[in-house]
Amino acid sequence: MRRVAITGHRELPAEVERAVAGALRDRLRHIEGPVTGLSCLADGADTLFARAVLEHGGALEAVVPAERYRDGLPAGHRAVYDELLAAAVLVHHLPHVESTPQAHLEAGRYLVEHCDELMAVWDGRPPRGPGGTADIVDYARRQHRAVTVVWPEGARR
């Protein structure tokens, strides 16, 4: 079973979300055999990926960075988070209470360490803070994980 994890940007414009969702579904269709997707289920790339994994018939594993992670998500996303968390076949809880950048960085590293491939919805820019997409891509490359960058040409955040 191929284990694929996601890292990526949040708060994507609607047209970028549509393009990214299509690209993620297309990449999953090209993976032979069963797929397990690993995601923190945040709004944006994490959710697009989790939905694509489930639509593909794959298994979803959730990684919860901190006990209060859900509280730090946008209020409008919490019902989606709950729905996807309930759909997960396995939930990995990291040992943090507060949802801090350090907890997110450790969650990203956990994703990398437990996958065969990292899909990154990434505009190629430097991180805005610790634990951002660029940090996780860099870590994956240093760990010699396959990284597939998904970013629509000409797209802006």
Outline the secondary-structure elements.
Layout: E1 2-8, H1 14-29, E2 35-39, H2 45-56, E3 59-64, H3 69-72, H4 78-87, E4 90-93, H5 101-113, E5 117-121, H6 133-142, E6 146-150
Parallel strand pairs: 1-2, 1-5, 2-3, 3-4, 5-6
Description:
The model has no long low-confidence stretch (mean pLDDT 95). 41% of the residues lie in helices and 20% in strands. It has helices at residues 14-29, 45-56, 69-72, 78-87, 101-113, 133-142; strands spanning 2-8, 35-39, 59-64, 90-93, 117-121, 146-150. It contains six helices and six strands; from the N terminus they run E-H-E-H-E-H-H-E-H-E-H-E. Helix 1 (14-29) runs parallel beside helix 2 (45-56), helix 2 (45-56) packs parallel to helix 4 and helix 5 runs parallel beside helix 6. Strands 4-3-2-1-5-6 form a six-stranded parallel beta sheet, with helices on both faces. It is globular, with a radius of gyration of 14 Å.
Shape: globular
Structure class: alpha/beta
Share of residues in helices = 40-55%
| Average pLDDT for all residues | 95
In this structure, how is the largest beta sheet organized? 6 strands, parallel
Short description:
The chain is 41% helix and 20% strand. It is α/β, with parallel strands linked by helices. The longest helix is centred in the first third of the chain and has 16 residues, at 14-29.
